[in-house]
Specification:
- The protein is mainly β and 382 residues long.
- The N and C termini lie close together (7 Å).
- Helix content is 10%, strand content 34%.
- An eight-stranded antiparallel beta sheet has the order 13-16-15-14-8-19-1-18, with no helix packed on it.
Length: 382
C-alpha cells in the first residue's frame, strides 16, 4: 500500500499552524540543571572514553567535527544487555530501493511522471576522508556537551512528558496552549499495522533560541499509549544540547518507554546498530535550503525487515545506515500502529511570562508560499 500526499507544509515560528495539519502538544517536566560536581565530572570522563573508544582512524572535518572510524563490532550498541550476543545483520533481507508497484500505479493514475527529487546525500566530513572497510564513522562526543546535561544518563534523550494535552485546528484555548513545552505539527496516519514510512524532507536551519531547546523534521513510527509508547525516528535536527552547536544534522532516535529511561539520539547510548561506512549519524548535512534558493532535501525511509523484524533506516534512497534490533522493543516487534511526518520543537519556556512561548522555529520558520520558502515533507508513503 502506498499513500502519497502532495506536500505537507512545515514552517512557523513559535506557535503558528498551517492549513490541514494536526497540531499536538506534550508538556514536559523540566529539571533545573545542577552544578557540576567532581563525581559527575569523573563519570562524564568515563562515558566520553566509552563513546569515543576503539578509533581506527580519525577524520577532522572542515566544519570542526571530529569523526572517529570505529571497528563495526566495537560500536556502542553492543553495550546493551539485550545485544551481548547479537550477530550483525550487514544488509537488509530484501532490496527496498526499487519503486513499489503501488507507487508506480499511483503515479500513472495521477497522469504524471515520477517526481524528481533534489536529494542531499553528502556530509561535510566526507570531503576530508573516508572510513576504511570494517569500520563505521562516529561523531566524537565532546566532554563539554555531556557536562551540560542534568545527568550522564539523560544525555542524548528527549525530555520525558509530564502530561498530554492535544490541540487541533479550531481550538483557541490560550490556557490549554500555554501549558505545553513540546510541540509537534504532523501528518498522522493510523488504523493499520505499518511496516514502513518514507518521506522527502526539505532541509533548513531553523532558529533555535536556547541551548536546551531543539527543532526537528522527521519521519516517525510509533506503537503504544502516549505515556509508554515505543518509537523509531529519523530526519534532521538542530539540537545544541546534544551536538553543542546550531548546525543542521542528520539524526536517528528511538525509545521503548516514551523516553523515560530508554533511547537516545544516534549512537549516544547502546541500541542502534550502524552498518554503513558512508554516513555519520549526527554529522552536519550539506547543502541546506535557503529562502529563494534551491530546495535541498533528504529522503528518509524507516522499514521493518520481514525476516529478522529489525527496523532499518535508509538515507538518500539508497544507503542503508543501520537498524534497531527488534529485541529493543515489545510492541514495535510486530509493527507500528501509527506513522507521523512533520516537525517537533521542544522548549522549557512554554507557560512562562513574558514571553508566552519560545522563538525557536520549526521547518524553515516561514509560512508557506513561493517567496518565503517554507519547509515541507513531500511524497509521503507507507
Amino acid at each position: 500500500m502506498a499513500k502519497k500526499v502532495c506536500c505537507f507544509e512545515l514552517g512557523f515560528r513559535g506557535v503558528g499552524i498551517l492549513l490541514g495539519m494536526i497540531f499536538m502538544g506534550v508538556s514536559y517536566g523540566v529539571v533545573e540543571g545542577n552544578l557540576v560536581a567532581g563525581q559527575k565530572s569523573l563519570e562524564v570522563g568515563r562515558n566520553v572514553d566509552t563513546l569515543n573508544r576503539h578509533a581506527v582512524k580519525t577524520i577532522q572535518s572542515e566544519d570542526g567535527d571530529i569523526i572517529d572510524c570505529i571497528d563495526i563490532y566495537k560500536q556502542p550498541a553492543f553495550d546493551h544487555p539485550a545485544l551481548k550476543n547479537h550477530t550483525i545483520q550487514m544488509t537488509p533481507s530484501y532490496d527496498p530501493t526499487t519503486e513499489t508497484r503501488a507507487e508506480t500505479i499511483a503515479a500513472k493514475l495521477g497522469g504524471r511522471k515520477r517526481e524528481s527529487s533534489r536529494t542531499v546525500t553528502s556530509q561535510l566530513w566526507q570531503k576530508s576522508g573516508s572510513c576504511p572497510k570494517g569500520t563505521i564513522p562516529v561523531l566524537r562526543i565532546q566532554k563539554k556537551d555531556l557536562l551540560k546535561s542534568n545527568s550522564v544518563g539523560e544525555y542524548g534523550r528527549k525530555k520525558q512528558p509530564g502530561f498530554t494535552n492535544e490541540l487541533t485546528l479550531g481550538n483557541d484555548s490560550e490556557n490549554s496552549y500555554l501549558q505545553q513545552a513540546n510541540h509537534s505539527a504532523v501528518l498522522l496516519t493510523e488504523g493499520f499495522n505499518y511496516l514502513g514510512g518514507k518521506g522527502d524532507i526539505q532541509v533548513f536551519n531553523p532558529y533555535v533560541e536556547s541551548d536546551d531547546e531543539y527543532s526537528t523534521s522527521q519521519v516517525c513510527l510509533k506503537h503504544g499509549p502516549y505515556y509508554a509508547y515505543e518509537s523509531v525516528e529519523s530526519g534532521w535536527a538542530v539540537n545544541p544540547s546534544v551536538y553543542g552547536d546550531r548546525k543542521t544534522r542528520l539524526f536517528v532516535y528511538w525509545t521503548a518507554d516514551a523516553s523515560k529511561t530508554t533511547g537516545c539520539f544516534d549512537l549516544t547510548c547502546p541500541g542502534f546498530i550502524q552498518t554503513s561506512s558512508e554516513i555519520a549519524l549526527g554529522a552536519a548535512i550539506y547543502p541546506i535550503s535557503v529562502p529563494r534558493g534551491l530546495p535541498y532535501q533528504i529522503t528518509i525511509y524507516i522499514y521493518k525487515d520481514p525476516y529478522t523484524n529489525n527496523w532499518w533506516v535508509q538515507y538518500g534512497g539508497k544507503i542503508n545506515i543501520g537498524y534497531w534490533p527488534h529485541k529493543l522493543f515489545k510492541m514495535l516487534s510486530y509493527g507500528a500502529e501509527a506513522v507521523e511526518w512533520g516537525g517537533e520543537v521542544y522548549s522549557s519556556k512554554i507557560g512562562n511570562s513574558p514571553p508566552p512561548h519560545t522563538a525557536t522555529a520549526m521547518g524553515s520558520g516561514k509560512f508557506p508560499g513561493p517567496i518565503f520558502g517554507s519547509g515541507c515533507v513531500r511524497r509521503m508513503r507507507v
